[in-house]
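FAQ: What does the model actually see?

It sees only this:
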Amino acid sequence: MKSKVWIIITVIVSLTPLIWILDFVKDKQKYEEVVKANTIEACEAYLTMPRNEVIVKNYVDEVKHLKKVFEREIEEETRRLLLEQRAKEEAEKWRTDDLAWNEATSRNTSIAFKKYLELYPTGKRVQQATKLVIDREVDEIFGKDHGRLPAMDKTSQGQGSTSRISVYNNTAYILTLRYSGTESKIIDIPSRSRQSISLSNGNYRIAASVNAANVRNYAGSENLTGGNYDVEYYISSSSSTYKPHYRP
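And it is asked to produce this:
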């Protein structure tokens, strides 16, 4: 009886390596099928199939890595298609003059009105869009951190419907002034230079900025009643702190 038992045990022990080899060959074939198929579905099928725990490490890590590569590719492709779809939808909103104007007025930002002007430089609402670009830029400066512009000096009275403003830019930068009101205008004044601008009488919001990131914007209001006005803007600094300031 003992001899029969030992024979059975001997046969099982001797067959075990053969079984492992067959399992290994089968696992390798499945792995090669995954590589050939080159799909995330093949990876998932391989990772969920029953396998001998002894050889489980043979190709599992490689297939898991391959699955992650496929997942990243799918995410990137999905993102690309989404961006393409959004770009098409965005282009459709600006396809004609009327559609573009509706979109610009709906967004009601300086960027939107600038885009309208870029797409339709001879469009039906160029004059209106040009004014709204300035109006919205003034809104945006008023809506963020800004300093307060001092009042201008009125140098002479006038009976006409317009006011004339003389501005001296006593800074080291290009000074941009935006006037938003009865009419809207923008002027760029070079450093250490003077320019004049004429505006219809009325209430105006004024925004001043320079082409320097470390100088804050300034804003204020004026009621123009005709005649001549004069103003000088400069920037002062003290010790190591850079303090922008505009003065009349």
